[in-house]
């Protein structure tokens, strides 16, 4: 691969991966890879050696940058221990590193908005997991098996009209 790779198609051609999918052979384009085609995941890093990902949980959205370091986690300009004071939330954020066996090897810088502290911790965990996969694709199987790459879609149900809460009715009075 001495030629310069300018696009994803150039990379696929250099590695020898087929670009045709099952649907394209039949005239359909569903985006699913063809049977027996290996998906090649490439590490993506910016000029500073960081990888970026977005994590979400409930109403919280976290933007996460991961780079090699000594395990320092900065959330919204504060250290993790100051921002997430509860030990349970700190444990939640550290889970992707322990599952992937890379504890203390990466520094994390993230900004998180929306929701409460629990949702924000879940969003940071999701973002760290995705960013680790982008930085080092070999970590993906362990994180996927632990379920850290799946966005937890549970959100608060909306309040309906004629109800006191989402499902709770007003108290019935017979007389």
Topology:
Layout lengths: L7 H8 L6 H4 L25 E7 L2 E9 L4 E3 L2 E2 H4 L3 H13 L6 E8 L3 H19 L4 H6 L30
Parallel strand pairs: 3-5
Antiparallel strand pairs: 1-2, 2-5, 3-4
Beta-strand segment tally: 5
Main structural class? alpha+beta
* Poorly predicted parts: 18-26
Mean pLDDT: 87
Number of helical runs?
Answer: 6
Task: Write a concise keyword list for the protein shown above.
5 strands, 31% helix, 6 helices, globular, 175 residues, five-stranded mixed β-sheet, alpha+beta
Description:
This protein is of the alpha+beta class and 175 residues long. The chain is built from six helices and five strands. The protein has helices at residues 8-15, 22-25, 80-83, 87-99, 117-135, 140-145, and strands at 51-57, 60-68, 73-75, 78-79, 106-113. The protein has a five-stranded mixed sheet. Strand 1 and strand 2 (60-68) form a beta hairpin. The longest helix has 19 residues, at 117-135. The radius of gyration is 22 Å and the shape is globular. Mean pLDDT is 87; it is low at 18-26.
Quick structural overview:
Helix content is 31%, strand content 17%. The chain has helices at residues 8-15, 22-25, 80-83, 87-99, 117-135, 140-145; strands at residues 51-57, 60-68, 73-75, 78-79, 106-113.
